[in-house]
Design goal:
- The complex is a heterodimer of chains A (79) and B (367).
- With 79 residues, chain A is an all-alpha fold.
- Helices cover 89% and strands 0% of the residues of chain A.
- The longest helix of chain A is centred in the C-terminal third of the chain and has 34 residues, at 45-78.
- Chain B has a single domain, classed as Hydantoin permease.
- Chain B contains 14 helices and 2 strands.
- Chain B has 367 residues and is mainly alpha-helical.
- Classes of the chains: A mainly alpha (79), B mainly alpha (367).
- Chains A and B meet through helix 1, helix 2 and helix 3 of A and helix 4, helix 5, helix 12 and helix 13 of B.
Chain lengths: 79, 367
């Protein structure tokens, strides 16, 4: 649970921090969100491809780690 | 916490590489104009005082990192909240520095390559190193420290033989009085010297804790002297007005080298320096951020979190600003006041007061 929860919590707070820093520079919330997301919206096709590969890798990574952990728990319980 | 040990000598080299990482490339203390090299020396003194402060706080809780002793000093609720904010600060700075070096490579060497891809390549290397641990990083530091030292000495000698250095560019000293110098010293205390605060996460790994303080102080002094000499050389070669308009003064300085119409275009020296410095700066920041997270949330296998957190840092580095000027402006106007000041000065001071009071109370009760 921690493996998934911690990165989500950190991403959410970091997003909040970026918003806060943008607001300190005098931007409203809508403009601040636009500024944060803008670099992703202008990605070239090759970048989107790499982005997709990375996302798939992350999902596979979690799948492998979590299934291994489940297996370990089952082995411990069987013992 | 990782079960690893590094020597005071390795700590010394890591601190020097970390301090010089980006500050040797980006001009520092320019508010003082041609006295910038003096501002760096003043900032170094401030950095030494800050290091003594961090070391004193850590000495109350030997073997513990800040995210572990914050709850002991301020209580579990407040301590854990501040420890979490500290971790967020570390991730934010790791992303900022990653963006700095990514932009630098895009601007100077790879103008057609997207920033996202450059940052991804950095991050692959950083994630791999962090998974290998602090010992591997420290050993790498020992090798690359020598490479950087040879490059620096070669560049210095070539500049002297080239005859580019004109010390008249450093005059007049205190042209506009001491105020701009004082302001510039204030800036250089936060960047780069105050960044020594991140090493509070690494100090418990030192195998000879008695030599930690000496290693840290010597490393800061050496970094300060190298930076000051670099700034003085940049000013002597380029002059203040040209230096202030250059993104990377060290590169412009190195580009002036032209010996016997044969030894020229030594930009590669700069690029090697950027890559070595950038690698250590980003890796150390990301390492302490990951270690802070895993110690705060008591994660059993820290290495399992490295990849997801690296993924977040990579995306944060791209989304942190929509353009390079915006990124730099935020770094100069907002970050020092709202992030560096609290995390480098105010919180450590409060921690020192808290640690002192708690330990005094303990001593009284045990007596």
């Amino acid at each position: 649970m921690k493996l998934i929860g911690i990165p989500i919590l950190i991403s959410a707070v970091l997003f909040g921090l970026m918003l806060l820093l943008d607001k300190l520079q005098g931007r409203n919330t809508k403009t601040a969100i636009h500024y944060i997301l803008n670099p992703f919206s202008v990605m070239r096709p090759a970048e989107i491809f790499v982005f997709t590969i990375l996302s798939i890798l992350l999902i596979v990574y979690y799948w492998v780690i979590l299934s291994k952990r489940k297996q370990d728990k089952e082995n411990t319980a069987a013992k | 916490m990782e079960k690893a040990k590094i020597s005071p000598r390795q700590l010394f080299m890591l601190i020097v590489l970390f301090e010089l990482g980006s500050s040797i490339i980006i001009p520092v203390g320019l508010t003082a104009k041609q006295d910038a090299w003096l501002a760096v020396l003043g900032g170094m003194v401030g950095g030494l005082l800050l290091f003594l402060l961090y070391h004193k706080v850590g000495s109350y809780y030997p073997g513990l990192v800040p995210t572990e002793y914050m709850p002991k000093i301020w209580g579990p609720f407040l301590g854990n909240i501040f420890a979490f904010l500290y971790v967020i600060y570390l991730f934010y700075l790791a992303a900022r520095v990653l963006r700095d070096f990514g932009e630098m490579l895009v601007m100077f060497a790879y103008p057609e390559t997207p920033l996202f891809i450059i940052n991804l390549l950095w991050m692959i290397l950083v994630v791999y190193t962090v998974r290998k641990g602090i010992e591997a990083l420290a050993r790498t530091g020992e090798i690359l420290f020598v490479v950087l030292f040879i490059l620096a000495m070669a560049s210095l000698l070539l500049l002297i033989f080239n005859g580019s250095i004109d010390t008249r560019n450093l005059q007049p000293v205190f042209e506009e009085g001491p105020l701009p110098l004082v302001k510039a010293i204030g800036e250089t205390v936060f960047f780069p010297f105050g960044e020594i605060v991140f090493f509070t996460m690494i100090l418990p790994y030192i195998n000879d804790s008695k030599k930690t303080k000496r290693a840290g102080l010597y490393a800061l002094i050496l970094s300060g002297l190298i930076l000051s000499v670099t700034m003085a050389i940049n000013l002597s070669v380029l002059g203040y007005s040209l230096l202030a308009r250059t993104n990377f003064p060290l590169l412009a300085t190195i580009q002036t080298i032209e010996l016997a119409e044969f030894l020229q275009r030594l930009d590669v020296f700069f690029i090697i320096g950027v890559v070595i410095g950038g690698f250590f700066k980003i890796t150390i920041l990301f390492y302490v951020a990951v270690m802070g997270t895993t110690s705060l949330f008591k994660v059993e296998k820290p290495e399992q979190l490295v990849f997801p957190l690296g993924f977040i840092t990579l995306f944060l580095s791209v989304g942190i600003a929509s353009s390079f000027p915006e990124h730099i402006q935020e770094g100069l106007d907002i970050v020092p006041m709202y992030l560096h000041l609290p995390f480098q000065v105010i919180f450590p001071l409060l921690l020192l007061v808290g640690a002192f009071l708690r330990n005094r109370h303990k001593q009284k009760s045990s007596g």
